[in-house]
Give the backbone structure.
Amino acid sequence: MVLPRAARTQRRTRIQEEKEEQILEAALDVFAMNGFRGSTIDQIAEVAGMSKPNLLYYFRTKEAMHRALIARVLDTWLDPLREFDAEGSPVSEIRSYIRRKLEMARDFPRESRLFANEMLQGAPNIEDELKGPLKALVDEKAEVIRAWAKAGKIARCDPYHLIFSIWATTQHYADFDVQVRAVLGPGHDGEGRFEDAARFLERLFVVGLEMEAPPA
């Protein structure tokens, strides 16, 4: 976990914690809008409503703010996959996973765009986390999917590409929300589009994983 500068020098007060959160919220707005390279400390300070020297007391560099946000986002992003239960019904678990991912696309669009920008830059801040904790978790859940297929509960599939496909289709609704609303047109800019997406994606993936009936 990346700690703010103030947290490394002394025990934080409630006011300091609030200031750090205020800064990170502003940084999230700026990074999600402009990307890391297009963002400046001056922009973040302006959005946070703070002077630049005051901001730099808490986070010395733009990189420090970005790393703190990315670490937080990655942890949040993995929560739905952690809840993937080997003892549950495959269909129920896959449907629940799709819905949880779509809820994140709906509720955390800035975080999704921040994460996507980090990937497009080659993941310079979280490459170790991708190759370590994220890979270990995906490996674990891939074994769950393989076990379901081996037990005849779902059709055989490549579990990694199944997970990648769910990531791609659900996060599309956050990263390309403007495009989604433009194409759907008036009357589809509310939460209904996420429910429509959930029903379609559930059917898409569940039907694709159904076992074929044995020949008569």
Observations:
- The first helix runs from residue 5 to 9.
- The domain at 70-209 is CATH 1.10.357.10 (Tetracycline Repressor; domain 2).
